[in-house]
Specification:
mainly alpha, 3 helices
Length: about 70
Protein backbone atom coordinates (compact mmCIF):
# COMPACT_ATOMS: atom_id res chain seq x y z
CA UNK A 1 0.00 0.00 0.00
CA UNK A 2 2.79 2.39 0.92
CA UNK A 3 4.67 1.72 -2.31
CA UNK A 4 1.53 2.17 -4.43
CA UNK A 5 0.84 5.51 -2.72
CA UNK A 6 4.43 6.65 -3.36
CA UNK A 7 4.16 5.57 -7.02
CA UNK A 8 0.96 7.60 -7.37
CA UNK A 9 2.43 10.58 -5.55
CA UNK A 10 -0.29 10.62 -2.90
CA UNK A 11 -0.36 10.07 0.84
CA UNK A 12 -0.97 6.52 2.00
CA UNK A 13 -4.00 7.55 4.08
CA UNK A 14 -5.71 8.84 0.94
CA UNK A 15 -5.17 5.54 -0.81
CA UNK A 16 -6.44 3.69 2.27
CA UNK A 17 -9.58 5.85 2.33
CA UNK A 18 -10.21 5.20 -1.38
CA UNK A 19 -9.89 1.48 -0.76
CA UNK A 20 -12.30 1.66 2.19
CA UNK A 21 -14.83 3.71 0.20
CA UNK A 22 -14.66 1.24 -2.66
CA UNK A 23 -15.29 -1.72 -0.37
CA UNK A 24 -18.27 0.01 1.28
CA UNK A 25 -20.16 1.02 -1.85
CA UNK A 26 -18.61 0.19 -5.22
CA UNK A 27 -21.23 1.98 -7.33
CA UNK A 28 -20.72 5.32 -5.58
CA UNK A 29 -17.18 5.03 -4.24
CA UNK A 30 -15.82 7.72 -6.53
CA UNK A 31 -18.60 10.24 -7.18
CA UNK A 32 -18.06 12.94 -9.69
CA UNK A 33 -19.02 13.89 -13.20
CA UNK A 34 -22.62 14.25 -12.00
CA UNK A 35 -22.77 10.87 -10.28
CA UNK A 36 -24.25 11.36 -6.83
CA UNK A 37 -25.59 8.93 -4.29
CA UNK A 38 -29.40 8.77 -4.34
CA UNK A 39 -29.69 10.62 -1.03
CA UNK A 40 -27.33 13.38 -2.20
CA UNK A 41 -29.30 13.70 -5.44
CA UNK A 42 -32.51 14.04 -3.46
CA UNK A 43 -31.00 16.78 -1.29
CA UNK A 44 -29.80 18.57 -4.41
CA UNK A 45 -33.31 18.36 -5.91
CA UNK A 46 -34.88 19.68 -2.68
CA UNK A 47 -32.47 22.61 -2.55
CA UNK A 48 -33.25 23.48 -6.16
CA UNK A 49 -36.99 23.24 -5.47
CA UNK A 50 -36.61 25.37 -2.34
CA UNK A 51 -34.84 28.06 -4.34
CA UNK A 52 -37.62 28.12 -6.93
CA UNK A 53 -40.28 28.34 -4.21
CA UNK A 54 -38.47 31.24 -2.55
CA UNK A 55 -38.28 33.07 -5.88
CA UNK A 56 -41.98 32.47 -6.52
CA UNK A 57 -42.84 33.75 -3.04
CA UNK A 58 -40.87 36.94 -3.63
CA UNK A 59 -42.63 37.52 -6.95
CA UNK A 60 -46.02 37.06 -5.28
CA UNK A 61 -45.08 39.56 -2.56
CA UNK A 62 -44.12 42.12 -5.20
CA UNK A 63 -47.30 41.45 -7.15
CA UNK A 64 -49.40 41.93 -4.01
CA UNK A 65 -47.71 45.29 -3.34
CA UNK A 66 -48.24 46.34 -6.96
CA UNK A 67 -51.93 45.32 -6.89
CA UNK A 68 -52.46 47.15 -3.60
CA UNK A 69 -51.01 50.34 -5.08
CA UNK A 70 -53.17 50.01 -8.23
CA UNK A 71 -56.41 49.60 -6.26
CA UNK A 72 -55.97 52.93 -4.43
Amino acid sequence: MAQAARDLGIHQTLLTRWKRDLSRDEAYAFPGKGRLKPLEEEVRRWRRENLVLKQEREMLKKAAVFCAKQSR
